[in-house]
Design brief:
The protein is mainly α and 332 residues long. The chain is built from 16 helices and two strands.
Length: 332
């Protein structure tokens, strides 16, 4: 029996295509155009926390609760407003590598002596009690006010004086809060008796507290006429004026030459504003820039003295806003 050779023509759509034919076909599809250089510039890298959370199939609220990351901090990371510092990045890497192991490690456990023995009442009859402890980093919370007011003033120039005064006031409050964050870590004994210690010279008041923190951090006190340190005292002057604010009387008279157009008189009228010339757009931006620079200068020196505090952070004014831990046991 003879064999017959069967031949068939391969349809064009099944024929292997040359590389240039593949590219031409791709370019003919208007919904699948290749990315150009401008497209790549506009693209943003998806933040690591969002990638990890989506891989686990969790909402922001679920991820925050499971791994004890403040929801505001997580949202800032995912929206690119802030970036995780080094300890936070290490923590996120640990979550990505062993999400279930970390979940179990963070799950509240009953203490051994709180577990009911055989025949005793169970948790359901006695009830449960959860104890939570942690720390809010107020200097970072206050710094968010500063940055928000700067952004608001830029977007809304009309009435920006109100934003400027908040920016400058909270910039100084941020510094005060940072001193109270750093001081107990460098000298806990002094801060346990803070009220009495800072009533006496040479460490009296906020001037003395700042001087003491600089000494503890081994940072020489700068000249008060040099920035950024000079800005600290400009802001203290404003803080004191606000603290002891009183009603202020004022009057003004503006003379216009006869040929001055009446239509322009209202535009050139100068209103008296409270707090003299301290509150200006320039000083508000100076406050935000100089206070951050000054605090980070102290922080860089102090972190060499506090190597084991994972929550101290590489930067003073960025990173988690708080941390907490807790346990659940049978209520007494």
């Amino acid at each position: 029996m003879s064999k017959k050779t069967i031949s068939a023509k391969i349809p064009d759509r099944l024929r292997p295509k040359l590389p240039e034919e593949v590219e031409a076909a791709a370019r003919s599809d208007l919904d699948a155009q290749p990315l150009g250089a401008d497209d790549l510039k506009r693209m943003r890298r998806t933040p690591q926390p969002k990638i990890i959370r989506r891989a686990l199939g969790l909402t922001q609220e679920e991820f925050s609760a499971r791994y004890r990351i403040p929801i505001g901090t997580l949202r800032d990371w995912e929206q690119g407003r802030t970036e995780p510092d080094q300890p936070a990045r290490a923590y996120l890497t640990a979550i990505a590598r062993d999400p279930e192991g970390l979940r179990q490690a963070l799950r509240p456990r009953l203490p051994t002596d709180a577990r009911p023995a055989a025949g005793e009442a169970s948790e359901g009859t006695k009830g449960l009690q959860t104890e939570i402890a942690g720390e809010h980093f107020m200097h970072r919370q206050l710094w968010r006010v500063v940055r928000r007011q700067i952004d608001h003033a830029t977007a809304n120039p009309t009435g920006a004086f109100l934003d400027h005064i908040v920016t400058m006031t909270f910039a100084f409050h941020t510094l005060e809060a940072y001193l109270n964050f750093l001081g107990p870590r460098l000298a806990p004994g002094i801060w346990r008796d803070e009220r009495n210690f800072f009533r006496r010279e040479p460490y009296r008041g906020i001037d003395g507290k700042l001087r003491k923190v600089l000494e503890l951090a081994q940072v020489p006190e700068p000249d008060r006429s040099d920035r950024p340190y000079s800005t600290v005292w400009l802001l203290k002057e404003l803080r004191d004026m606000i603290t002891h604010a009183q009603a202020e009387r004022f009057s003004q008279a503006i003379e216009y030459p006869p040929e001055y157009p009446a239509s322009l008189r209202e535009e050139t009228r100068v209103d008296y504003m409270p707090f003299g010339a301290l509150v200006t757009a320039e000083n508000a931006h100076r406050a935000a820039t100089d206070v951050e620079e000054f605090i980070e200068r102290i922080h860089s020196a102090a972190k060499l003295l506090i190597p084991d505090d994972i929550w101290f952070g590489a930067k003073a004014l960025s990173g988690p806003l708080a941390y907490s831990s807790g346990r659940t046991g049978i209520s007494s």
